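[Meeting: bench + compute handoff]

Bench side (C.D.) handed over the final construct sequence. Compute side (W.E.) agreed to return the predicted structure before the next meeting so the bench team could plan truncations. Sequence as handed over:
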Amino acid sequence: MRRDDFDYELPQELIAQFPPAERGASRLLHLDGVTGGCTDLRFRDLAGLVARGDVVVLNDTRVINARLAGRKRTGGRVEVMVERVLGPDEVLAQVGVNHAPKPGSALELADGIEARVIERDGELYRLRFEGCNDVYALLERHGSVPLPLYVSRAADERDAERYQTVYAREAGAVAAPTAGLHFDKALLEELERRGAGLAYLTLHVGAGTFQPVRSQDLAAHHMHRERYRVPQAAVDAIARARAVGGRVLAVGTTTLRALESAAAGGTLAAGDGDTSLFILPGYRFRVVDRLLTNFHLPKSTLLMLVSAFGGMENIRAAYRRAIESGYRFFSYGDAMLIERQ
């Protein structure tokens, strides 16, 4: 397999620039990974597709205001995109600037914030915010919502709410777990009323989720690392579902990667750590039976993941159908429910 095996042509007008008027108003394409059959639904139809005894696993990470703008002391414009919070005054970040800043140099950011460059770490920089003792509070006050670059507008007040799931709790993500954006509280309650369990884990989505695959040889691609935590309560909920013949539905590729990482030893186990799991066709899934996800960028690691889960030809056909039917793509777009091949 090569990178170009996961390419497709997408009309620009199908890239969603705004969320739907209300949560749950999106469309849902249901793909049977065994037969390859597709069904066009509304997202709220999801409740009727989840049976008593199933478990729905969600990622409760909370998006931080990770984007900061400013200038170098020499006058050049700077954009800082926080990738990971390291401590009360330090972050690992992407720094968008014409010339790479050197260790010891200072970046003057919005509202008089000064960030000192400590060191370079690959494509990222370790930065220290001078006089800061709570990075999360600093970002909340002075940062902006880190919308992906394919959303060709500035973030506004609406994004502060809608680029966040209704169950977001654990601050640390710099991109939303977008499959979860479709849920409102009423739908979550309806799933429980129908006898499905809800379980939560945390994977802090990094900006690396948008990192392009630069090599045609997929074996040469270095996957970004993301922090995750799978609590014992989630492991127990999945065990209960298995005991009664229920299925495990992962809400989003981030949830799936956390679960599969936690089961790397052969059995799902509670714990936390970093994952750089790169899932390609041929991967043997240990935990997840069904995947709810949005539509993904061409040649992306996420498109490779869903192709592994639903089957390459099935996914190609489903994406062709979605494009022909005018589905909305990417973070604020419509959703797919994929039954594992």
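W.E. noted at the follow-up: The mean pLDDT is 95. C.D. will use this when planning the next construct.
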